[in-house]
Structure formats: C-alpha cells, structure tokens
Amino acid sequence: DAKLDYGDTFLDGGHLRESFPGCDILLDDDEMKKEEADVAAKEQQLQKRKNYRVRVIDPPMMTSNNATAQEKKVEDGTIPIKVEATSYPFPSGINGNPIRFTPVQVKAIRSGLSPGLTLIVGPPGTGKTDVAVQIIANLYHSFPTQRTVLVTHSNAALNDLFEKVMARGDVDERYMLRLGAGERDLQTTSKHDFTKTGRVAHILSRRAELLEIVQCLSESLGVSGAAERGVDGSPSYTCETAGYFNMHHIQKRIVMFEEKLQEEEKVAVGSIFPFKRYFGLDDNVAMTKEGAKAKFDTLNEVFSELAEYRPLELLRSQRQRTDYLLTKQARIVAMTCTHAAIARSHLVDLGFQYDNIVMEEAGQMLDVETCIPLLLQKGESDRSLSSLSSRLKRVCLIGDHHQLPPVVKNMSFSKYSNLDQSLFTRLIRLGVPSIELDRQGRARPDIAKLYSWRYRNLGDLDHVNTRPIFKKANTGFAYTYQIVNVEDFEGRGESTPTAYFYQNLGEAEYAVALFQYMVLVGYPPEKISILTTYNGQKELLLDILSQRCGPGTPLAGKRPGAVSTVDQYQGQQNDFVLLSLVRTNSVGHLRDIRRLVVAVSRARLGLYVFCRQSLFGGCHELRRTMDQFASRPTKLHLVPGEHFPTERSLDDSANLADEKKYVVEDVASLGSIVHSMQEELCMSSAS
Predict the structure, then answer these.
(1) Residue 572 burial (CB < 10 Å; 0-12/13-18/19+)?
(2) pTM for this one?
(3) Cα angle 382, 388, 392; round to 5
(4) pLDDT tens digit sequence for 463-506
(5) What is the maximum span of the chain, computed from C-alpha positions, in angstroms?
(6) What three-state secondary structure class fits 625?
(7) Which end of the chain is more exposed for a tag (fewer CB within 10 A), N or C?
(8) Is 253 helix (H, G, I), strand (E, B) or coil?
(9) Cis bond before residue 645 (omega within 30° of 0)
C-alpha cells in the first residue's frame, strides 16, 4: 500500500484528477472535488508543473457472497476508490513527459509499476511507446537500486524507445546501455555511443571532467596548488583521493558552516560560506540558507558520481571494465530478443541480474523469443532446489495481437502447430487480465474507422479533431482516403517473373505517378511512404522510381520517406501512404485481417490504395473495411490548381462542386497530368 512515485506522469493537478475518474482524491492533504475546481486560486495552483507520489486505496474486500455486489458498487461509484497524492517539485532543466495521458494509459502505467505480470494491448496510434517510456522512467526514479531490461523485436523499435527515454532528460545517460549492432542507427546528442565500449569511454571522459572540478576546488581552498598537476596539466586527484579530500576537507567545512549557523542566528550566511572563492562569490555576497544548501548539493553530487567511477580505476583491461559496466553500473539495458538469445550464456556466466523487464512488440515475438529474455539471470532455483524465488519482480508485455504475428516460414509449423502464435497472444486468449488502450491520436477519425472496428471501444483523442493539420483537406485531393481501381495495364494484371515474386506493373506505375504528382504540388517527399504487400512489387516500385526520379529528370533526387512492404513497415507511420495490393487473381495473404489492419493504419492524413476493387471488395474477411472504401468513388478524384499546404478545410471538401474535381480515368491519364506539370516546372526553371 506504499505510495508509488509516478514522477511527471501527470502534467498538473487537473490531469491527476482526470486520470482517476469517480475517485475521491486527496492531494497534499487537501480534498480535490469537482465543485471546488471553480476557485481561481486553486486552479492556478493545480496548473503548476509538479511530480507526484500516488497511493490508490481500494475498498476492503467483502465475503465471497457479497463480492460481486461490492464490485458492482465500485464500478457504479457507490463505493468510491480513494487516491492519496503528494506533490514534490518538478526538476528544472529537463523536458520530462509531454503527454497528457488518458485514464486508461495511467491505469497501464500504474500496473507496470506494480509487481507481477502486466499485459498492455495497444491498437495503432494509442501511444504504446509513450506508455512504455513512462513506465521505464518511473521505475528508474522509484527504485534506484533496480535494473530494468528493455526488449523489442526489431532494432528500429528499440532505437525509437531508447531515444524517447533519452529525450526526457531525467535519466542519466551513464546508466543507459544499448546492446547489439543496431546501436549504430541510434540518433542521440551524446558525444559517445551507447555500446559497452562507448559507455566506458563516456565514463572515463566524465571522470576527467569531475576530477578537474575537484582539483579547482582543492586549489581554491589552498589544499593543493597548480604545481601538483601533471605535466600535461591533468588533475593530481584520482577517484580514491577525491573521496579522502571530500571526507577531510569538504564535509568538515560543511559541518562547521552548519554549526556556526546554529550558534549565531543573525549571522550573514554569505559571510561564513566556505566555498566563495570556488563559486566566484564576493566576500559580502547575499545568500540564503537554501542557496548555500543547493551549492553543497552540487558538490556532493560530484563526489557521489566519482565514487561510482572508482572501480574503473582498479580494473585495467577493457573487457573487465565493460563487464563491470554491464553487471554493476547500468540500470537500463536495452537489446532485441535476437541479441538476448545470442548473449544469454555470456550474461548468465557474468552473473548479470535485473529486476524488471519491459517488452514492446510482444505480439511479434515467438514463444521462445519471449521466454529467453526472462532467463538472462540465474534464479535462486538454479542454485538451490529448496528456494524457488527469483530477483525478477515485474514483467510488462506490450503489443497488439490484432496486428501481424511472428514470422514462421515453415507453413506446417505456422498453421498446424500454431507456432506463429506469440506468448502475448496466447495469454490474451487464455483470459489473463490485460489493459487495452482505447484512444488513438495518430490518424484522422475517418481513416481510423477503417480499422477501429477490430478493437473494443477504440475512440479518438481530442487533438485529431481540433488541430489545424487534421482539419485541413489534403492538397490536390478531393478525399482523404480512396481505393483506386486498377484494371489490367497493357493487357496484364499480376505477374510472377519467378515463383511467389508477385508484381503488378499497372499499380506500380500508378503509385509512382501519384507520388510525382504530390511532389509537384508541393508535398515534402519524406512525408510520403509507398507500401505494398509483396517484395516483388517493392523491387518494381524502386526500379520505376529510379527511372522517373533519377538523374536528368525534373524530380531528380526526390525519394519517398519509405518504399517498403506492409510487414516490414509495422510499427512505423507517415503522413501520407500510397498502398499497392498487387494481386488480381486471388486475394493472397492479405486475407489475414491482421495484415490489412497494419496496412491501413500506417497513414496519419491520407491513404490511397491501388488494387482490383472487385476482387478485394468481394472478400468476406475484409468486408468491414472494404465497405467503407466502397462508399467513395473507385476512380481517383483530384482538385487541380492547389499548392501545398492548402487552405481548404475538410468541410469545404465535403461540399466541393463536381466541376472543381478532376476524375482520373486510368494511369495513362494521371501520367499525362504529371508530364504537363513537369514541363511547366522545366519552363519556369529555365526562365
């Protein structure tokens, strides 16, 4: 029942109240009730950014005969749940959490902080990664002696998670470690990389900076002089001697300062402050007790950090230092499930231990890929059969079983042995309690409806209805999403140059032509992704792009943000997505509704699908989504004469007159439009 440190989970007191609907909230021993929220002074106080420690007090359980009735009363609010919250100052100089979490997200964060198993189901765009980052940060601050392991299926997802933790600014980078080859793609502002060797280099660099501070402090007190420095001007102190210097000179002076303050109540704090010379202060400087304490804290932090680096002075080889860093220093260790399998034996031999594990993309991991990261340390049961305890305290699995499952290439194992069912999905199907995030903030509401039917009560966050970017129409388009029916091109639909290497030239030409059109009207090319359901089509798209946007063409060097398959693009997003479904003879593997959910949920503002509409529209499994596409024309509708960004709103688009729309009959028609626009571009460039 102890209070858990939620840190900066709540942006203000009002957010705290919203996060626990129907609860009696006691904040800093002051009842927060809705009727009191109208008082201006209280509202001003609530809006200040603070951190919070929160304790949720559930009603006492009754006998089994009355338990069901009591649960109903709790849900109805007849028996309110009590929430005690204590605020403390938000640290300055850090970014912290910028997200106003929903009540369900707060419930997921609360579960992640509690011991045991947590399952979080995150539909597309519901902030799975943001919830994971907040859980990691809260664990870091709440339990300073514990180590947390981060595991994902892909390097891209792991780097994204790692970068967001770094961007908060409240997690010291000396405690963070990234294992595996994917670290080279990490985008951070640190001078050193986050590999084991990079972190050792960072620590040694930081040690030199702190010892220079100690040397300057020592010289300012007259304990040592500049002559005692090394030949190259390096400090004469080590971490060990800095500890003795702190004990005999710094702490001694701090104690004497505090004793004088107690003896003489009216003495000027600045006159007896012992480190005026080091901090560059005048003899008669005005100073408060709080100001002096803040400077003492600064010095204590220097010596505390140096004490952590002392073992690296004793360990001389790089291998010893990296192993020490991994097993003793690092508090947040990140790796993919593949690297966990590779490094497991080495980690167990080193005696690596951890307390918490957070797995993202758990729905894409095989059973064994999920289990191996749980076994990176020796449990007590490995040493003694009489003790079956483990240091592992929290397991948090985050994923979405309605998106793509693990990839198993052997069809027999996949279909008949259910090997493509992740442990995450297995637990969900077995009825293990889980938390499903219920508000998406990625896509326009009309685009989100294409896949929201697959989830229970998936709604929209307020900003997808209020932000200007979501209220504006797509430049040059009459609709925000459309299916574009593509008939046989040059007498051919799908083709297979080699077995299972599916291509569709008509759809590829159409998608590239539309990409050219979008770039010519001003869209940033990096905001556009071209996706397809087959590798063969991806290669064809890349070939056509190299010809249409290659050297010597008006759009030379312009490339989409991504050209990828749907499977490879899971977990990523872009503003505008052009999707090619390829097949014309049979639906193929898109019949798996999970693949369709991934395909239509990657776009934020615009989605344009190229396919044989009669084929996919008649597929029973896809009908709920295809019926929504069928409510709009199956020929591409453009709005000529616009340039990005448009001022036309979605309301204007709904009432757009037919004469302002241009209906593209086929790929040749769009190609002629693009050709004319390119000629105009060349003429304007020449003039």
Answers:
(1) middle
(2) 0.89
(3) 85
(4) 999 999 999 999 999 999 999 999 999 889 999 999 989 999 99
(5) 99
(6) helix
(7) C
(8) helix
(9) yes
